[in-house]
Structures are given as C-alpha cells and as structure tokens.
C-alpha cells in the first residue's frame, strides 16, 4: 500500500528532530511504524528508570500531602475538638520519630568513638535520659495492644487516661501544664515528711556544731526560707556517712525520696536504693555537663521546655474549643529547673538561670555524695 505524503513528512520530521536515522529510510522515505518504534526507544534512553521512579514517587507524595491538607481542613471545619486531638497526635508522632533519630545518632557516636555517657554534651545526655523514660512508660501500652482487636481498647484507655498511659509527645498543651502541676504537687507532698525525718536524726549526730547547723537548716527550709549554698555545704559531711549517707538510710526514708525523682517506691529496699543511687549519679553527671556548657547557653525551651508554638489556626482552635487559652500554647514541662525540684512555671527565665547557677555551685562541691544530691532539691 502506498504511503501518503503527509504521513511520510510527519515521520521524517520526528526523526530529524531527535537526531536519528532509522533503518529502512531510503531517499527520505520511512514507515510510520519504524519511526515511532525508534522514537519510543529514544525517549526510554533519554529518561532512565531511576528518574522515572523518582518522578513518580514525588508525584505520589505531593498528592498525598494535598489529600492530607484537605482532610485536616475538613476536620478543622466540621469536628474542631477531634481536630485538636488529631493535630496533637500527628505532632507527637513527628516529635517522637525525630527524637528516635537523634538517639540513634548519639548511640552510633558512643559506639564508634568509644564515648561514655558522662563525656557527652548536656543536650545529648538529656535527650538519652528523657527518651529512655518515655520508652519505659510506653512499654505497658504496647503490650496491651498486642492481642487481636486490642487496639480499640487502647484508644479508649488513651483517651480517658492520657497522663498514665501517654508519653509527653501526645499530650495537648493544656494537659502538659496540668500534668506538670500534678506531678510537682505529688513530689512536694513528701517534703514535710523528709524534713521531719532529717530533724529526727539530729540527736544521732555526734558533733554538737553539726547538730545545731543541721537543725537550723531544717527549720529554715520548713519556714519557707531559701538556705544559701555555704549553709548547705557546712553539713555535707553528714550525708557521706552515718547517719544520713545513702547506704545508711532506712527503707522508709528512701521511699520518701523516690517521688523527688519520679520513681515508684513500691519496690524492695535494695532495688529502691540502687535506683536512687543511679538517679543521683545521673543528675550529678548532668550537672557536670551543664557546668561545661554554661547556664546562659541554655535556651528558654531548655530551661523550661517550652513547646514550639502551634500555627495561628491551631491557636484559634485551641481557644475556641476550650483546650487551652492562646497564651498557654507555650507549654512548660519537665526540664532543667523542674528536673531538679523547682516548678519552673512560676519562674521567669532570669530566675531559672539564677537558681541553676546556685544549684551548680553546690553540685560542683559534691563528689559522689548521692544522699545530699537527692535531698538538695528540697531546698
């Protein structure tokens, strides 16, 4: 069958544009089948399979982001309360994955460079410490969700018992402020009992001058006054041996110290003693690292752990549905001052810095004095 002039010209033009001369072309005449076959091969060679896969993945990712944005807008408009919970959980998962990535980098550094925990920077120590506590708290929830269809029960439990079951990443801003106050109030409930126990041990002190200093120190704290660093240092020898050394304390007194470190007291006496010593040692190591870094190098988020502000739409939604007022989106949780026994939500940044400087002056004088380190947060 003869070829039309238009078909021949169109096929030849395509071949010339791509700079190839297909087999079977004689005197400027070629068949359309051969032209388009070679044209397809040329395009496949022009765009490799890896580039095609990359372009496809980018297209799919962009479509998923678009669908997610539409879904979030729908939730924000139709179900504002559920949107706040949804936004909190999505942000929590992102923060958790980011923390897990940071921990992996730190662990790799420790293994490859043979770096011990006490030689890490303050921020690296704090990241490992907090991530370990979060994972320990998350283990019971993971075990509950193992049986089939148990995930539905987990969702119900997480909704009704967020403080007991959820880690800090999945708390709403209002919950973080509320839970911090609950934990601090429970910690403060034991202050009176601990000070009473210290007062009862005064007669067991052999040196009359140390007896007088310890009694004056206890009375000063009970009256609400702030003792100075030299006043505490004057009695530090009593906490390195009898009667107030960590190995000399009775089980009841050690259990009173457990809430200061957010530890459970319902363990055997030897386990309580071991955990208290471990927490006190970790706190001393954090103090050494913080001293190397410098208190003024800490940002406000590291002093008081202020969560980054949410977007303006989320702020409006939080205030609208009653989860939090706009100014409370900057949420304060456990960190530098709070870890050492102070409710940092009642202090300014400058006051947090001044308090930490005084704390480090005392901590730098302690060399393995775990008992005094455990009780210093009472001051």
Automatic annotation (TrEMBL):
InterPro entries cross-referenced by the UniProt entry: LETM1-like_RBD (IPR033122), LETM1/MDM38-like (IPR044202)
Entry keyword NADP: no
UniProt entry keywords in alphabetical sequence: Membrane, Mitochondrion, Mitochondrion inner membrane, Transmembrane, Transmembrane helix
GO biological process terms, semicolon-separated: intracellular monoatomic cation homeostasis
Subcellular location as annotated: Mitochondrion inner membrane
Entry membrane topology: Single-pass membrane protein
Segments forming domain Letm1 RBD: 120-305
Pfam families in the cross-refs: LETM1_RBD (PF07766)
Transmembrane segments: 138-161
Protein name as catalogued: LETM1 domain containing 1
């Amino acid at each position: 069958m003869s070829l039309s002039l238009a078909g021949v010209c169109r096929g030849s033009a395509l071949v010339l544009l791509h700079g190839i001369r297909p087999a079977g072309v004689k005197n400027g005449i070629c068949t359309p089948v051969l032209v388009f076959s070679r044209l397809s091969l040329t395009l496949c060679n022009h765009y490799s399979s890896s580039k095609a896969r990359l372009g496809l993945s980018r297209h799919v990712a962009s479509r998923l982001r678009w669908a997610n944005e539409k879904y979030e807008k729908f939730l924000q408009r139709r179900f504002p309360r559920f949107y706040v919970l949804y936004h909190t959980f999505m942000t929590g998962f992102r923060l958790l994955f980011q923390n897990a990535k940071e921990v992996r980098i730190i662990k790799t550094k420790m293994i490859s460079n043979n770096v011990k925990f006490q030689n890490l920077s303050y921020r690296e120590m704090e990241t490992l410490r907090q991530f370990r506590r979060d994972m320990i708290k998350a283990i019971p929830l993971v075990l509950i969700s193992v049986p089939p269809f148990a995930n539905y029960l987990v969702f119900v439990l997480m909704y009704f018992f967020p403080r007991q079951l959820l880690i800090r990443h999945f708390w709403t801003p209002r919950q973080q402020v509320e839970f911090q106050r609950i934990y601090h109030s429970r910690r403060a409930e034991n202050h009176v009992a601990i000070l009473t126990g210290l007062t009862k041990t005064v007669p067991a002190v052999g040196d009359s001058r140390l007896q007088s200093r310890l009694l004056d120190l206890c009375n000063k704290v009970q009256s609400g006054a702030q003792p100075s660093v030299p006043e505490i240092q004057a009695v530090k020898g009593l906490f390195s041996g009898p009667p107030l050394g960590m190995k000399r304390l009775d089980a009841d007194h050690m259990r009173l110290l457990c809430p200061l470190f957010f530890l459970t007291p319902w363990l055997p006496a030897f386990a309580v003693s071991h955990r208290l010593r471990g927490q006190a040692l970790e706190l001393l190591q954090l103090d050494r690292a913080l001293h190397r870094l410098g208190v003024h190098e800490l940002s406000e988020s590291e002093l008081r752990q202020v969560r980054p502000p949410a977007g303006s739409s989320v702020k409006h939604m939080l205030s609208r549905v009653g989860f939090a007022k706009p100014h409370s989106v900057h949420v304060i949780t456990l960190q530098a001052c709070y870890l050492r026994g102070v409710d940092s939500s009642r202090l300014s940044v400058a006051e947090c810095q001044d308090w930490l400087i005084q704390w480090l002056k005392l901590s730098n004088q302690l060399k393995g004095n775990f008992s005094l380190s455990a009780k210093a947060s009472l001051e």
